[in-house]
Amino acid sequence: MALYVQKFGGTSVGSVERIKKVAERVGRFRKEGHDVVVVLSAMSGETNRLLALAEEIHKTPSPRELDMLISTGEQVTIALLAMAMEQQGIPATSYTGAQVGIVTDKSYNKARIKKIDTESVSSDLKAGRVVVVAGFQGVDEEGNITTLGRGGSDTTAVALAAALKADECQIYTDVDGVYTADPRICSKANRLEKITVEEMLELASLGSKILQIRAVEFAGKYQVPLRVLSSFEDNEGPGTLIVADSEEQNSMEDPLISGIAHHTNEAKITILGAPDIPGVAAKILGPISDANIEVDMIVQNVSPNGESTDFSFTVGRGDYTKAYSLVEECVAEMGAGRILGDNAMAKVSLVGVGMRSHAGVASLMFKTLAENSINIRMVSTSEIKISVVIDEKFTELAVRTLHSAFGLDKSE
Amino acid sequence: MALYVQKFGGTSVGSVERIKKVAERVGRFRKEGHDVVVVLSAMSGETNRLLALAEEIHKTPSPRELDMLISTGEQVTIALLAMAMEQQGIPATSYTGAQVGIVTDKSYNKARIKKIDTESVSSDLKAGRVVVVAGFQGVDEEGNITTLGRGGSDTTAVALAAALKADECQIYTDVDGVYTADPRICSKANRLEKITVEEMLELASLGSKILQIRAVEFAGKYQVPLRVLSSFEDNEGPGTLIVADSEEQNSMEDPLISGIAHHTNEAKITILGAPDIPGVAAKILGPISDANIEVDMIVQNVSPNGESTDFSFTVGRGDYTKAYSLVEECVAEMGAGRILGDNAMAKVSLVGVGMRSHAGVASLMFKTLAENSINIRMVSTSEIKISVVIDEKFTELAVRTLHSAFGLDKSE
């Protein structure tokens, strides 16, 4: 008999009917003899409803009061789920973050968990009760309610699993696992049975927004087996297990790459012939960052003559116009450089711990793209990832052909 | 400079606009230099919305989970009001019942306050902050959230005022005070400047549902000056002050009566000629009570021959048919008695500490009713109250003529 921490997100508890379904699912685990701790988000839409009320009152409300307000969302769902468990004859107790002893620092709206007191949870589990915990929230050492930031319920679940030494932390979502590529554009995408934390981190930050990055990091750090599964009744499968990566797992049997992520709506700005002097990158990116524009990829090359440099970066398409004009100002100030811009770009990334020991990934990738007449506009690499920027219109073609080339297609 | 505890009910915080109005009102007190602790209910309708969600899941949910659920209502309003105070430039901090240290017993849904830890409130007040406290809720000694029952926010306010030794506890409502009679049926009704706790208790239980009875009792017990005022902008007046009654206040100058309460939708059932033996009253009322029917007035007279008794009681009109049939069964069982019933009755009550020292109240009351051809069907008295049951159609006539007869009419 195992101990599971099961997390259900806002869509999974978005209505009374769905809450009853969650209770049934948890009940099945309980009836099999497993101990279950459930972590819940607020009903979908509730947090936004509360934020809208706050905004009508104060444009920049006190972060403490904001946390006081939005933490009510999860408190509602935990009480309702505990009732639904009892309706099924399964004893259950709900706890707010404060009650369960999730102590955080004082950073309202984006607090970090410092410690968890598992005493009451453990004694409830021993007494045969299902424990239902409010995700996303905690309490600082003075008793003020804090929240962990959007998606923080995943972190609550992983942290509880670590503190309770649970056998598995199961994150129920609206997808049934992590795929080798986005199934919406690549019909041959496969569900991965297993993926390493490192790979998951690269995939998550690239747009496969299944799990909160912090939760994945946490799982890696505390060696919590983390599983992503579907919360939909008609899609019960084993999901994808995210394992803490270790050297042993990086064996010759590992596939070259685990998955292909893509991200559209990118824009690219290039400054040709900028003076090749120290601090030029900071000079160009400083105003961009001051304007709160997030920069993704950055590539710099020394020009052939060694006196000037070509500098490129990508931003979200929505920030393109603003970023372009900031760069124009900068170039005017420097008195050198020519600007090229394109706001219809996409990023396609190959991710896999297997590529650590295989030099040939990049060349197979470039060859495949070339065979399909897809121009590469920018390249960036990390130890387990290669990202290329291409014209947006080629996104689907690139993902599908790379998927085949790297042997990821599912066998029919 | 005084310390005020101000309580605003669900209607007063029923929308963002109304919350802003409350913030303005509290702000005015603060700017005059007073310390203010605000106690809030949930936005009107919110508690019922949450209860409806619970009912969809479980007909009789666990009382603990119900309190977990509905206590979120006040948590939302306190955060929003604290934001609205800050929007006005007035520092404010909100506290849940648990945070402010309102410790109760373990009777979920109807908990009683055991103690209040005022440390954080006092230090916030000293620092010049407005303190906003969630009404209606507390926490038991094990940290479980409890609620005080419907209307419990009044009790929270009075208890906080007592613990903080506040100069006044102000309950803002949708009426501007306590009246000598219901102004809707008696146009000459006067707002009372002052009323004793004892009188208020009799008036409240008779249908002038302005304040929760427990809160009034609490105010009497702890000698908290309690004021009822209007929360509406266009109706700012001094309201009515409810004072702990003491012998001194019961002086010759006291008016004979303070107010007239009335209650329609009453039904009366009489058993004539019941056997005059011990336990007959219990025999008749036992089944009524078992059926959860609330009995209000009970009157019993020995019959002239001393062998049988006439026994009358009143119930709400909605319970009349059920009660009548239960009495029929009982009479059949006893083999004696005749039943009379009437389901169109009203109760009119005179209340006043002044009547303690004046024997003439009853005779003036009966004479006035007789002059207006109003038959008295039942009489019941307490030290500071006389209630009569009359035909419902005479209710308004009775209230108006008694109001004039006892000198309560406002001078034009």
Written overview of the protein:
Chain A has 2 domains: 3-173, 3-Layer(aba) Sandwich (Carbamate kinase), CATH 3.40.1160.10; 259-405, VC0802-like (2-Layer Sandwich), CATH 3.30.2130. Chain A contains 12 helices and 18 strands. Chain A has helices spanning 16-31, 46-57, 63-70, 72-87, 119-126, 152-164, 197-205, 213-221, 280-290, 320-334, 361-371, 395-405; strands spanning 3-8, 35-40, 92-95, 102-104, 113-116, 130-134, 137-139, 145-147, 168-173, 194-196, 226-230, 240-243, 259-275, 295-302, 308-316, 338-351, 378-382, 385-391. The A-B interface holds A 16, 19-20, 50, 53-54, 56-58, 61-62, 64-66, 68-69, 71-72, 75-76, 78-80, 82-84, 86-87, 93-94, 96, 98-99, 143-145 and B 16, 19-20, 50, 53-54, 56-58, 61-62, 64-66, 68-69, 71-72, 75-76, 78-80, 82-84, 86-87, 93-94, 96, 98-99, 143-145.
Give the gist of this structure.
The structure is a homodimer of 412-residue chains. By secondary structure, chain A is of the alpha/beta class.
> Would you identify the CATH H-level superfamily of the largest domain in chain A?
Acetylglutamate kinase-like
Mean pLDDT of chain A: 90
Q: Indicate the percent of residues in helices of chain A.
A: 25-40%
Assign the CATH class of the largest domain in chain A. Alpha Beta
How many distinct domains of chain A?
2
Please provide the count of β strands of chain A.
18
Strand adjacency order, main sheet of chain A: 3-6-2-1-9-11-12-10
CATH architecture name of the largest domain in chain A: 3-Layer(aba) Sandwich
Structural class of chain A: alpha/beta
Put simply, the count of helices of chain A is 12
Shape of chain A from CA axes? globular
CATH topology of the largest domain in chain A: Carbamate kinase
Reading the helices and strands of chain A in chain order gives EHEHHHEEEHEEEHEEHHEEEHEEHEHEEH
Residue runs with pLDDT of under 50 for 5 or more positions of chain A: none
Q: In percent, how much strand structure appears in the residues of chain A?
A: 25-35%
**Biggest protein-protein interface?**
A-B, 36 and 36 residues
Family (chains A, B): Belongs to the aspartokinase family.
Protein name (chains A, B): Aspartokinase
EC number (chains A, B): 2.7.2.4
Organism (chains A, B): Marinospirillum insulare
